[in-house]
Amino acid sequence: MTGGGTSxxxxxxxxxxxxxxxxxxxxxxxxARLRAILTDLERAPPAGLVFEEPRAATDAEIDAVHxxxxxxxxxxxxxxxxxxxxxxxxxxxxxxxATLAAGAAVGAVEAVWSGRAASAFALVRPPGHHAEAAGxxxxxxxxxxxxxxxxxRRLGARRVLVLDWDVHHGNGTQHIFAAxxxxxYMSAHQYPFYPGTGAATEVGAGAGRxxxxxxxxxxxxxxxxxxxxFHDLFLPAARVFAPDLVLVSAGFDPHERDPxxxxxxxERGFAAMATAVADLARESCGGKLVLLLEGGYDLxxxxxxxxxxxxxxxxxxxxxxxxxxAEAAGxxxETRAALAAAGRPVPET
Length: 349
Ligand SMILES: [Zn+2]
Hints:
39% of the residues lie in helices and 15% in strands. With 349 residues, it is of the alpha/beta class. The protein has a single domain (8-341), classed as Histone deacetylase domain (Arginase, Chain A). The strands form two sheets. Strands 2-1-5-10-9-6-7-8 form an eight-stranded parallel beta sheet, sandwiched between helices. It has a two-stranded antiparallel sheet with strand order 3-4. The protein is globular and about 50 Å long. Residues 166-168, 251, 253, 294-295 line the site of zinc ion.
């Protein structure tokens, strides 16, 4: 930031200390991921970016989402190496990285909420959306998106949308907000696939019934198919919800070159998704939009896709190509039927 009170277009919250989280040799969620993004941005920075280092999330911010026992366990492993589940490990710098990642998510929300930044992208690791209230899972230690959503609520947002385009279902985020009508969770993901959750019939519970939206897609979906998911499902549902704040769990593992999954999305597709959420945020809440990095495991695809989204935050527009296939249409129809059965039908477009 340049001086008090000035606002910038796009705030990037990132920190070299994220590179000190090391899940082990050969692990796909490696420090090289963030290094690839930062090297690419340093080589040719898109216009309008301001870089800042985040603060660590406070205990209270973490405890708004996670059990004190989970926080205590992670803290007790600070400075050590430990394995938390078959996919999830900590190194000496992991606790600090995790608290900074969650703090970056909160700081991004604070910046757009106050108007200090037009939008923000927290370029963090470890990722967050698989972390449950009481446990680490799937490369994730703390649920950055959930912690950010709670921070937004405390700042005064009445309705927070979390849109998750990572190729894996964000089980943690869904479960944390399943019974809530003030935080809507929507996800498009490969299914059946890791972590096994995210069926169309999972629509939330109690007061939160109809506020969880899962588009469970077979592998192989392309930019045009994601376009149908956005235009026929996500955007009409989000307009009814009318969020005060839009958060995106931005994973770039639906990319066609990603080694962990089977989708066929390109950089142009991610730019079109970013355009769609930026338009939604402008219509609904004066543009209050925060992107949070989740997965993405092909280094060049990850860097190029992150850049494409940052170009959109800087003013580029990209439309989805036409020509969605029958599989996407079928998945969308299944989700729409489940939401109608839950008493929260999505308007026809
Ligand atoms: Zn993922």
